[in-house]
Amino acid sequence: MDELMADGSTKRPALPLSEAALAALPDSVQRPTYDRSALRPGIVHIGVGNFHRGHQAWYLHRLMQGGLAQDWAIIGAGVRPGDAVMREKLLAQDCLTTLVELDPSGTSAEIVGSMIDFLPVEANNAALIDAMARPDIRIVALTVTEGGYYIDAATGGLDLKHPDIAHDIAHPTVPRTAFGAMVAALSRRMAAGHGPFTSQSCDNLQGNGDILRNVIVSLARATDPDLADWLTTHATFPNSMVDCIVPATGPSEIALAAQFGIADAAPVTHEDFRQWVIEDAFCAGRPDWDLAGAIFTDQVHAYEAMKIRILNAGHQVLANAGELLGLETIADCMSHPQIRPFFRTVQMEEIAPYVSEVPGVTPASYVDLIETRFSNPAIRDTTRRVAFDGSSRHTGFVLPILRDALAAGGSVEGLSLVEALWARMCAGTRQDGSRIEANDPHWDTLVPAAEAAKTDPRTWLAQSQYYQDLADVPAFATSFDTWLRVIWADGVDAALSRYLGKGA
């Protein structure tokens, strides 16, 4: 029944999203113009979260809208129990996703239909292995988060002693991890005389393809050296840089989709910006993503370094300070009178000097772009989401810049303050005394380390799994010690003011 509005007009209830409902959606909603029943799979994607559906799946959808890539449809997959929840939601709506673009000038909605199935999520990954072993699957892609690659922090290689990896080595036909499942499928393909699929990381890691290659080949070598040699010769692992701010989905995002007349259990909101830069190294073919705006280049590392250092490290500059001050979103951080100039100063003085230009974009102009994107009030990207897994994000995004600055003899005062803010946040309370819920896979060890650092800041730097030899570098260790003591004694605002030259 239609809802009677205050002005006497009527409003139709939101339609549950499905293939059958597409024709009945409001004209303002863009939807697939291609015959989804005729699509054929070519990609298995592991980790079907918001970012994948708002980024990679969208690029493929745009090709399909132009009558291209009809044999490259996506089969979704996951290896964690939580992935089964997403599977249930997406299968109930025929694997369709509502994308809501949050442009400051207004919102728009589009239905993406490039995914056609979602595999069962099983402890032994049998269905996933079966699918990836099929010769029509030519790309296996992943978004499993920056910390999901089982990297040994001390060596930079695969952590062969991790219980999950050790299990996969001992039981290669019934693996626990996505990587073990990929190796099992590749083994079947080799035995059957099929070529390998391209393994494509879509996570925010510098050299993500190189990292994935190391994980897959190392795991294969631990169980089947012949398979490892075959992969080294024939398989490809393209590096890429991915970029689009995609907030987590909650009741407000579901309500926003409903405003467009769509009842979607897992809609995706996103900013009015996307970028995908890819190394053109695909051993079994690929879609022409460049026709939808992606960039194929041999300069991926330069693009990804700019993005990871300015955007991803920039997120960490903001998020811990914002969390401690109780600011809900990144846009709220950017409107704060001290956090925004703190962000700008650290970027221009301590991050941008260690970033190279890419064609048409200088580091300074990229800082301007990121500042504008982060300030978009329509993007409800929470400080909690951005601060999540700081143990991976600080080590991956912030500390490499700090090392470069130290090597160049540059200032590290701002970056030291960033690390002190993280240490203070990990104590688990905000400045007003309210509790910060566990927000890191290693929260149980970070909290006591942060509490000990309240009286002896350098105990935080003794966590060698993160800081390695940085604890012994006076220019950083002394600055960190000073800033953490200021934060605990006088508060975040006082520390920011002092850094900006406004306080004592």
From TrEMBL:
<dbReference type="Pfam" id="PF08125">
    <property type="entry name" value="Mannitol_dh_C"/>
</dbReference>
<protein>
    <submittedName>
        <fullName>Mannitol dehydrogenase</fullName>
    </submittedName>
</protein>
<dbReference type="InterPro" id="IPR013118">
    <property type="entry name" value="Mannitol_DH_C"/>
</dbReference>
<feature type="domain" description="Mannitol dehydrogenase C-terminal">
    <location>
        <begin position="300"/>
        <end position="486"/>
    </location>
</feature>
<dbReference type="GO" id="GO:0016616">
    <property type="term" value="F:oxidoreductase activity, acting on the CH-OH group of donors, NAD or NADP as acceptor"/>
</dbReference>
<dbReference type="InterPro" id="IPR008927">
    <property type="entry name" value="6-PGluconate_DH-like_C_sf"/>
</dbReference>
<dbReference type="InterPro" id="IPR050988">
    <property type="entry name" value="Mannitol_DH/Oxidoreductase"/>
</dbReference>
<dbReference type="InterPro" id="IPR000669">
    <property type="entry name" value="Mannitol_DH"/>
</dbReference>
<dbReference type="InterPro" id="IPR013328">
    <property type="entry name" value="6PGD_dom2"/>
</dbReference>
<dbReference type="Pfam" id="PF01232">
    <property type="entry name" value="Mannitol_dh"/>
</dbReference>
<feature type="domain" description="Mannitol dehydrogenase N-terminal">
    <location>
        <begin position="42"/>
        <end position="290"/>
    </location>
</feature>
<keyword id="KW-0560">Oxidoreductase</keyword>
<dbReference type="InterPro" id="IPR013131">
    <property type="entry name" value="Mannitol_DH_N"/>
</dbReference>
<dbReference type="InterPro" id="IPR036291">
    <property type="entry name" value="NAD(P)-bd_dom_sf"/>
</dbReference>
